[in-house]
Amino acid sequence: MRVVMFGYQTWGHRTLRALLDSEHDVVLVVTHPKSEHAYEKIWSDSVADLAEEHGVPVLIRDRPDDDELLERLEEAAPDIIVANNWRTWIPPRVFGLPRHGTLNVHDSLLPKYAGFSPVIWALINGESEVGVTAHMMNDELDAGDIVRQEAVPVGPTDTATDLFHRTVDLIAPVTTGALDLIAAGQTEFTKQDRSLASFFHKRSVEDIRIDWTWPAADLERLVRAQSEPYPSAFTFHRGRRLEVLAAVVSRGRYGGTPGRVFYREGDGVVIVAGADARTGHNQGLAITRVRTEDGRELSATGYFTSMGGYLTSRP
């Protein structure tokens, strides 16, 4: 098939690589300009560079809604558009242009975790698996019929970085497998159960600010979800920002006020956590590694030289 590809960052790069390695003919690539957004500077392999290396024409767009783009698409005469990590709405006159429509590749197990940063949100929420879905695009974001979907398990110590590498490796087989079905003439695919759908927004500074009223298990997953190279989860100690690089749920149960720097346990320092921590039924978050405002990385026992005081959400 003749394929036009819409995509950005490493997700789009892996998709384009899979298409270039396939039996299909990539006739045009549309990608976004470089961004200074914190999360868009991560996993930023260039789709444009890969396309140009293979002699594929490239268009740079923030939004795919201008007449020139539509004209170029009509000239390219694709049988299908394949999209992955395209960051803005694709209008019907674009996604409906090819005879086979548009196949969107999304890094979640749809219908759950439509939208942005699905792997991070899924890890924070304690999901047991994550994955990649190829679905036909329609008027509603990430809501079309599922052509192919693959999952990988989430382990108890997995970070978002671990899960990124595991899910990005699914892009090629999911994309080419879906295209094989479409090229073979299949047109009926799996409807999404919209009663299970959830939609998540882009990550921002507010989403990595530690709230000590969260249960320790939730905070431990937040720390793992904000693994390098993502911005680290942070709190404040004595008015200064403190990044939490590693932590585990405490073995013991600790009562008191959320945020209290309380007790050394093993290699960690336990912080009281949970809105109902005063009951004494809660486990705490045992921080094991931190980064200070001036960039020093320290063990928690090396940083907290005495117990007492509080970690807070704001200075």
Structural class: alpha/beta
Distance between the termini: 57 Å
Q: Strand fraction band?
A: 25-35%
Q: How much helicity do the residues have?
A: 10-25%
Question: What is the rounded Rg?
Answer: 23 Å
Number of strands: 16
Mean pLDDT: 97
Order of helical and strand elements: EHEHEHEHEEHEEHHEHEEEEEEHE
Q: What order do the strands of the largest sheet run in, or round the barrel if closed?
A: 3-2-1-4-5-7-8
Number of H/I helices: 9
Largest sheet: 7 strands, mixed
Uncertain runs: none
How would the global form be characterised? elongated
Which key features would you list for this structure?
315 residues, alpha/beta, seven-stranded antiparallel sheet, 16 strands, Formyl_transferase-like_C_sf, Methionyl-tRNA formyltransferase
Description of the structure:
- The chain is an alpha/beta fold.
- Helix content is 24%, strand content 28%.
- It has nine helices and 16 strands.
- The strands form three sheets. The chain has a seven-stranded mixed beta sheet, with helices on both faces.
- Helix 2 (47-53) links the parallel strand 2 and strand 3.
- Helix 1 crosses helix 7 (171-183) and helix 5 (118-124) packs antiparallel against helix 8.
- The protein is elongated.
- The model has no long low-confidence stretch (mean pLDDT 97).
- InterPro entries: Formyl_trans_C (IPR005793), Formyl_transf_N (IPR002376), Formyl_transf_N_sf (IPR036477), Formyl_transferase-like_C_sf (IPR011034).
- This is Methionyl-tRNA formyltransferase.
- Residues 1-169 form the Formyl transferase N-terminal domain.
